[in-house]
Specification:
The chain is mainly α. It is built from 5 helices and no strands.
Length: 94
Amino acid sequence: MKNVAQQFITQKLKQLTVRDILSYSKKYRIPVSEAEAVAIVKALKKNKENPFDHDGRKRMLMKLAAITSKDTARSVNKILIKMAKEYGVEHWLK
């Protein structure tokens, strides 16, 4: 069941919009500009890494940092962690 849920969440990440990213940014009080949100959405759509695997998430964030900035990658990581906590699955990110 965990694998199915993780696949579902991974697919949802690929479907996020700029508006979604900006909304989560406001909700969790993590600053993300519109230009950064555009880059994040493009990167998530191309992402083939497993965000629930520590090494996969690290590679995903490193790729994002390479096309945006380290600060943007940190912001995305913070948003992922806050979202996981909100849904009670933060232990999946360890």
